[in-house]
Design a protein that fits this description.
This is NAD(P)-dependent oxidoreductase. With 291 residues, the protein is an alpha/beta fold. 52% of the residues lie in helices and 12% in strands. The model has no long low-confidence stretch (mean pLDDT 97). The structure holds nicotinamide-adenine-dinucleotide.
């Protein structure tokens, strides 16, 4: 028998979760601060919960997907709601930090419930697809108990660790890499535009350069994991070679008056490493400076 799910939050992501669960045959209770957002979901077969506690009481599993943990706390940590959590599983899909996940796991278990912390590595349009990845951490037996339900939200769903904060930590780690790329693209386009280049040139040449960048990324990940920081025959470019090319970015910012906040931060790290005489080392030798 399919478990009954209560979804708290019918924003972009919450609505997609509800639609996917309904399509998978799960009975769904839905609650949202503004009720109108639930109307299209009720039309699809969800039951509108009159209150948070009513929705939780009627469900086996409570999926929370609201803006942030402050909003989530305001819903779950009301006495009337806390009193209904005994025997329920709370799956927290609101983005949060490892500390928030740890605190919440502790609190839910104090109420007699089970807790899983989740990170959604996708946008709402990807929910329910076979390759979509959601990461979970918490008690493995709770994950196993609800695995079928969780897999309905993304076929590449993974359990990443027993410490409740590990899914959020991996989420933050992967997003950090994404922000590095996004900020890098913005800085690169500023340099290109300052020299009168059409940004379509940046776009098309990026496509050709990207496999090289991806290979360098995997290389730095592998070397850092293996702590192979000294330059060797397989080093793609030494720290000194990187820093030589990096001077052209600093010069372009200076000459064209571009915002250099990001390059300046990178320059600080390069200089700190090079001050120890590591010009021949691999780029991965910067890794210890970030700990
Ligand atoms: P959204 O703005 O579309 O929806 C936010 C929801 O939070 C709404 O249902 C709103 O009613 C509710 N809410 C806000 N403040 C509240 C409060 N004080 N009390 C009760 N409810 C409150 O946002 P979204 O894109 O659906 O994101 C929801 C969560 O999912 C966030 O934590 C977000 O980081 C996470 N997430 C989103 C995406 C994405 O691509 N949209 C991807 C991964 C994770």
């Amino acid at each position: 028998m399919k478990s009954t799910v209560c979804v708290l939050g019918a924003g972009r992501m919450g609505s997609s979760i509800v639609r996917t669960l309904l399509a998978g045959g799960h009975p769904v209770q839905v609650w949202n601060r503004t009720r109108q957002k639930c109307a299209p979901l009720v039309e699809l077969g969800a039951t509108l919960a009159a209150s948070v506690e009513d929705g939780v009481r009627a469900a086996d599993v409570v999926i929370v997907n609201v803006l942030d943990h402050t909003a989530s706390d305001a819903l779950l940590k009301q006495d009337v709601v806390a009193a209904t959590l005994r025997g329920k599983t709370v799956v927290q899909l609101t983005s949060g930090s490892p500390r928030l996940a740890r605190d919440e796991a502790h609190w839910v278990e104090q109420q007699g419930g089970s807790y899983l912390d989740g990170a959604i590595m996708a946008t709402p349009d990807f929910i329910g697809k076979p390759d979509t990845s959601l990461l979970y951490s918490g008690r493995p037996e709770v994950y196993e108990r609800h695995k079928d339900l969780l897999l309905a939200l993304g076929g590449n769903t993974q359990f990443v660790g027993e410490a409740p904060g590990q899914a959020s930590a991996l989420d933050t780690a992967l997003l950090t890499q994404m922000w590095g790329g996004l900020f890098g693209a913005l800085q690169g386009m500023a340099v290109a535009a300052a020299e009168g280049l059409d940004l379509r040139a940046f776009e098309s040449h990026f496509t050709a350069f990207k496999p090289v960048v991806d290979a360098a990324l995997y290389d730095v990940i592998g070397r850092t994991h293996a702590r192979r920081f000294a330059g060797d025959d397989e080093t793609l470019a030494s720290l000194g070679a990187h820093y030589g090319a990096f001077q052209h970015l600093l010069e372009a910012c200076e000459e064209r008056g571009l915002n250099a906040a990001i390059p300046d931060a990178m320059d600080t790290l390069f200089r700190r490493a090079l001050a120890t005489g590591s010009a021949e080392d691999d780029f991965a030798s910067l890794a210890p400076l970030l700990h």
